[in-house]
From TrEMBL:
NCBIfam families (UniProt xref): D_amino_aminoT (TIGR01121)
InterPro entries per record: Aminotrans_IV, Aminotransferase-like, BCAT-like_C, BCAT-like_N, Class-IV_PLP-Dep_Aminotrnsfr, D_amino_transT
Assigned EC number: 2.6.1.21
Catalytic activity: D-alanine + 2-oxoglutarate = D-glutamate + pyruvate
Protein known as: D-alanine aminotransferase
């Protein structure tokens, strides 16, 4: 398997990461996950812009320009002969030895970049049948807008849902829904589409960005505001969005069917329009 290691495409077994790499020791780094359709990365510019913003937030200097990164990721896609798939890459701040919590200066460390790519077809069955979810307290940190390597909060929330027999976790902070364990969260109530506003409590999803535009252009009333848990009984539709799954309905919450356990009309429309937009 070919992977990206800094600016080279190498065999996976040839990668060497230091034991004091800060990504490994502290989760001190960032990542991105993008969709590949027809051999091309989808919405690369938007993902890169998010990466740049996150890098500034954690005071990490990106070791590449946008064209340099794109060239290397394109090489990886070609080396693995991927048509439809998922590309993941990450950057750690690099190695500081001996281990020290302080953020080193730019000339003390060199960020380490790794990336891999896998084939992945659109999850059509999941998009039709949906997933089940339960409410889980959002105990993550207060920088959920940073696509940090440290995903323990997300991992634990998903695990809590899985232990209870659900597919996913709908996170709740101070009585309001934030997002799902690895996706943005949406509700339809009385014909109005709701999703949590951007800010420090959710990841500003790239799929969310596009879905908001599509929904508005379809004449759907959209409110970017947090939905209180007290409105759970009034929810007509619920779905999650991320780059890899696109739009997936949540058909059962805490054991109670949503929209009789079926794909709802607005969710279905957004699924369709999003795919049309990709194909364009
Ligand atoms: C917590 C969280 N929220 C939202 C998203 C959706 O982001 P995007 O649409 O950019 O894939 C993700 C994707 O990984 C995520 O992990």
């Amino acid at each position: 398997m070919h992977v990206l290691w800094n600016d080279q495409i190498v065999e996976r077994d040839d990668v060497r990461i230091d034991i004091e790499d800060r990504g490994y020791q502290f989760g001190d780094g960032l990542y991105e996950a993008l969709r590949i359709y027809n051999r091309e990365m989808f919405m690369f510019d938007e993902h890169f812009a998010r990466l740049q913003r996150c890098a500034a937030e954690i005071r990490l200097q990106l070791p590449f320009t946008k064209p340099e990164l794109k060239k290397n990721l394109d090489k990886l896609i070609a080396a693995e002969k991927i048509t439809d798939g998922e590309i993941y890459f990450q950057l750690s701040r690099g190695t500081l030895s001996p281990r020290d919590h302080r953020i080193p200066s730019f000339d003390e460390v060199k960020p380490v970049v790794t990336g891999s790519v896998i084939p992945y077809e659109r999850p059509v069955d999941k998009q039709k049948k949906g997933e089940t979810a339960c409410l889980v307290e959002d105990k993550r940190w207060l920088h959920c807008n940073i696509k940090s390597l440290s995903l323990l909060g997300n991992v634990l929330s998903l695990d809590e849902a899985r232990q209870k027999g659900y597919d996913d976790a709908l996170l709740v902070r101070d009585g309001f829904f934030t997002e799902a364990s690895a996706s943005n969260l949406w509700f339809v109530i009385n014909g109005v589409l709701y999703t949590h506003q951007d800010g420090n409590l959710v990841l500003p999803g790239i799929t969310k960005l596009r879905l908001l535009e599509i929904a508005r252009s379809e004449g759907i009333t959209v409110k970017e505001e947090a939905v209180p848990v007290s409105k759970l009984g009034q929810i007509d539709e619920c779905f999650v969005s991320n780059s890899i799954w696109e739009v997936v309905p949540v058909v059962n919450i805490d054991g109670k069917p949503v929209n009789n356990g079926k794909l709802g009309a607005i969710t279905s429309l957004l699924q369709k329009k999003y795919i049309e937009w990709i194909n364009r």
